[in-house]
């Protein structure tokens, strides 16, 4: 399904209703990716508008908006054939080791314009690329830490709501580890790195992973401190 065909126009009242319903549903069942996605879209318009303006001021950002690359199997499948030291190969290993597919993300439905819908789609689809760059696992701590980075990069309200929801589900040991090690690291990492929404990742797949991390100011995650 194309981005344009997936969009559903909503009035402000309808957006509020979807936001409230999605928030309640996501709290009841945090595994509902569609509800979390809907919450992000209905509460994130101002944040996505700011990201769009930043992309328009960046050479790579403008290229992304012009060409509208998608992180889907058809366009990133070549990453699986790249040398082991490359960024693309690291992404392929991350996805393959977890049996993830680039095509699993739900479509964006509640943005006002095609341009904003693409920005929201891009933010959703680069999530696993950020996991790869920051060396974050996909467990509850890793996902919560990445949401902190996403908030620092995009100021999406849903990101902080997800962190709150995640920490509620932590046990005492996880909570201590997260706030002692991962939360302060994630705040610093999200602020120090380049504007990650203005990076045309697909053009850098064949580059060395450590080199692109240095180029973009990436601080990798703490290594499971004891």
Automatic annotation (TrEMBL):
Keywords: Lyase, Membrane, Metal-binding, Mitochondrion, Mitochondrion inner membrane, Ubiquinone biosynthesis, Zinc. Belongs to the COQ4 family. It is found in: Mitochondrion inner membrane. It comes from Brassica carinata (Ethiopian mustard). This is Ubiquinone biosynthesis protein COQ4 homolog, mitochondrial. Pathway: Cofactor biosynthesis; ubiquinone biosynthesis. It is a peripheral membrane protein. GO terms for cellular component: extrinsic component of mitochondrial inner membrane. It holds the Pfam family Coq4. Its main location: mitochondrion. The keyword Metal-binding applies. Lyase that catalyzes the C1-decarboxylation of 4-hydroxy-3-methoxy-5-(all-trans-polyprenyl)benzoic acid into 2-methoxy-6-(all-trans-polyprenyl)phenol during ubiquinone biosynthesis. Its cofactor is Zn(2+). Zn(2+) binds at residues 127-128, 131, 143. It catalyses: a 4-hydroxy-3-methoxy-5-(all-trans-polyprenyl)benzoate + H(+) = a 2-methoxy-6-(all-trans-polyprenyl)phenol + CO2.
